[in-house]
Structure formats: C-alpha cells, structure tokens
Amino acid sequence: MGSIVGNLHVLTAAHCFTTDDDQSNVKVLINDKDAENPQRPTNKKVKAIHLHPNYSVYSKRNRGIDEFYDYDIAVIELNDAINKIKISPKARPICIPCTEASRRALRLKPEATCKDQIDYLFFKDVVNAFFVTGTESQMKNMNVKIKLKNQPLLKCNEDALKAPLYTKVNDWKEVVTDRFLCTGGTDPQIDEVTCKGDSGGSFVIKRKRRAFQVGVISWGNKNLCQPTRRHSDPDSRDYHTNLLKVQDFLEKKLPHLKFIKK
Predict the structure, then answer these.
(1) CATH number, domain at 115?
(2) The pTM of the whole model exceeds 0.90
(3) Is 88 a catalytic residue?
C-alpha cells in the first residue's frame, strides 16, 4: 500500500522493497482514470525509490534481533510527465503535517509553527485515528486509537516483546523507538488490526474534515487476521513510522511541499 503525496510521489514503507528492487522492476498502480482521460495509464513507471538512509532491517542481528524496523519509510518518485498522477476525486494527495498546506487545511494562523500543528493533532494521551485497507473495489477505513503518552503508551510499547521475532529481547526500547506510533489492544476500545498487505499504507488522523497522514504502517506483534474478523486482543499491537519524526527525509525527497521547520 502507499499514499499519494504529489502528482509524482508516493509514500510507503521501506520494508516493502528488497535489495534486488530498483526502478526497473517496480511499478505503481493508481486508479486515476477519469471521463476526460479514459486511456490514462494506471500502471506508473518509477524513476527512483528513496529509502530512508537510516533504515537497516538487519542492523541489530549481532545483538540477537533478527529484524529492526526503525526509519521504515520510503518515497517512490514516478518517472516523467506521462506518468503524472491525475489529481481528481478518485486520486487525491493526502495532507502531510508540518507543511504550509496542512497549516491551511487546519485553518491555523500564518505564524503557526510545526509544534502548533503537532499539538493540534496529538492533543490527548489517546487519539482517534484510522488506516485504509482492502482492494480498489472495496476500500475500508479501520478505526484505531494512537497511544501517545503515559501508561497507555508504555503498555503499548512493552507489548512489542510479544512478537515472535522478539521473544528473546529483554528491553522493548531495543525494537521500539520514538519514531513509532503505537495502536492496538482493547483499552479504551477494541482496535482494528493491520494485516499483511497493509504495510506502507497511510495512518491517518481526521481534523477539519481533512485527512492528515501522521504515519506509515510498518509492523505488528501478532497475526490476528481472519476473513471475517480483524479485531485486536488485549496485547495485540501495531507500530507505524511517525512522519513527524522523519521530517528531514520528507523535506529532502518531497521538494514540492513547503515544510515548516520550527
């Protein structure tokens, strides 16, 4: 999965690619056909795949951690003008926080800072959010709550060690950094859970009738997915790369967006 962040850029997860993947064997499928351009291609050629330079899934193997997903984010740059995404009600760019576009969408004052936007989006210990799953013909919003502070966040992070990958890890801080947002569990409500195939998709907060992408779906500690049920149990958790913690990378790879520094 991925999200449109410009007519030549798609945001996704770094772990969706292998070391053998490059622009020649990766394509982006986007349904941006419309009545005016019925032949417009949906199979977009790729110019470059930009992984975060600090992403290194095997960097902690010498410490007994087989996979490590810090900085799990990537930007796909489409090839040329022919492959531009046709922006329309079917294919729309999502708001990225700490940009001028998101400031306007939040109706904040011109002098509003990045911190002002963060405070507006992350205003409680637990905040409503959703992610999108499904196929082109049947997309669905899945409701979750981000655990941002205090005991809800601590419990969410501690449960990372219940992942099969991390049963021999003693400290959750070895696998969960402050560049993750955590969801899941049954308190204060039963969250929905991500499944295989959701990786790289947008993790979203809704404000002012607009969708603001605050994360990219990265990994989870359990596989609870069934055809008719996608509900969390008390210690099932999902972890999403926090876009507000990788602003330098986004600013460099998304030059068409005007980022607010402070």
Answers:
(1) 2.40.10.120
(2) yes
(3) no
